[in-house]
Each structure stands twice: as C-alpha cells, then as structure tokens.
Amino acid sequence: MPTAVILIDLLGLILIVLGFHLAFRQNLVRRWWSVLRHECHAPARLQPLTDEDPARYAMRISGVMILAFGVAITLLFTLSHLR
After folding, report:
1. Which are the contacts of 11, defined by CB distance < 8 A and separation ≥ 6?
2. Inter-CA distances, 75 with 13, 64, 72, Å
3. How far apart are CA 74 and CA 12, in angstroms?
4. d(CA 43, CA 60)
5. pLDDT tens across 30-78, in order?
6. Could you tell me the sign of the dihedral formed by the alpha carbons of 66, 68, 69, 70, in that order?
7. Residue (of 69, 70, 61) closest to 11 by Cα position
8. How many whole angstroms separate alpha carbon 54 and alpha carbon 49?
9. pTM greater than the 0.90 cutoff
10. Which contacts (CB < 8 Å, 24+ apart) does range 34-43 have?
C-alpha cells in the first residue's frame, strides 16, 4: 500500500475518534476544552449539560458529521487503492 493511503487512513481514524467523542462523550470534550482554555482544572466547576442546552445538539450534529466524514474518506480512499 502506498504511503499516502496509510496517511489518509490515519487522518480518517483521527477524525472518527474525534467525531465519536464530540457526539457521544460530550462531558469529556467540555472538560478538555476547559483545560485547554486554562479556565479550570477541576471538573466540578463545569456546568452540567442538560437536554435543553443548545450546545449539546450542536456538538452531537457536528460530531456525527465529522465521524461520518472520517469513515467515508477512509473507506473510499482505501478501497480505491486495493486493486
């Protein structure tokens, strides 16, 4: 397999993991964002996500889109080079 295929597969895998966490592990992602922004290092100070929170839906939609793009780019690029 060419090196480009392996690099695209790794990029797709990173997108899949990122999209999964963004869509389904939202509390973990919010904790990472707060640490990266240096707001706090204690997860107890985060406000809990509720069902009425619009950020929850935006994170879920964008996470599923990133996950689907990662799967699509990985499968299409790899399957086109398997012949």
Report:
1. 70, 73
2. 11, 16, 5
3. 5
4. 21
5. 877 777 777 655 555 666 666 677 888 888 899 999 999 999 999 999 9
6. positive
7. 70
8. 9
9. no
10. none
